Amino acid sequence: MRVLKNLLENNRKWAEKVKKLDPGFFLSLSKKQNPEYLWIGCSDSRVPANEIVNMPPGTMFVHRNIANIVNEDDLNCRSVIQYAVEVLKVKHIIICGHYGCGGIQAVIDGSGYGAIDVWLQNVNELYHKHKTAMGALQEKDKINLLCELNVTGQVANICRMTIVQSAWDKGQKLAVHGWIYNLEDGLLKDLNVCVANKEEMSKMQGIEGRR
Ligand code: CO
User: Fold this and answer.
1) Does residue 46 carry a catalytic annotation?
2) Which of 46, 128, 160, 210 is catalytic?
3) Taking phi first (over 0 means left), then psi (-120 to 50 degrees means alpha), and beta for anything else, what does residue 95 get?
4) Each residue of 166-182: pLDDT tens digit?
5) pTM of the model
6) CATH number of the structural domain 33-203
7) 147 an active-site residue?
8) Does the annotation count 210 as an active-site position?
9) What are the domain boundaries of the chain?
């Protein structure tokens, strides 16, 4: 109970394997991180960031929360984005949602979980905006559509952030992407809502409704 033997054993074997393939891997990585990507995904245990894109340590700066929400008032998320953009100078921010997201489902079901309800308020507003249009859909399709709308909504939120706006003003190369992951086949889908500058952002007004 106090010692998670299997995890520690797995770690030892993993480190050994990595060192065998590249003896200097940990030493060189310990000196500096230089990730090109900031990944913002759901906390869901089935969507591990590095693993699903097969990227090694050092390549992705990662932030995960329930339903991959970007909220300017969230100090945690804002700090991650600020550090990634201003210090690490990542070139890409990937908002990655997933179909069948429990957080999104909770919004549709209206099931109350206290703090999570407050957290999901942003998605709740998005749901109410599109609720009538979704009326005829089956429950599963409704959830999956809201999962996609949430990704594009979060792409819009991140583009509106001062951190991102000033990076673009300074001519920094920075693209925001919206992706969604399918738990049923392990595949990612690009939702084609990429925004790489202010001009592209102005064209995406009302992006939440685009599919
Ligand atoms: Co989720």
Assistant:
1) yes
2) 46
3) beta
4) 999 999 999 999 999 99
5) 0.94
6) 3.40.1050.10
7) no
8) no
9) 1-31, 33-203
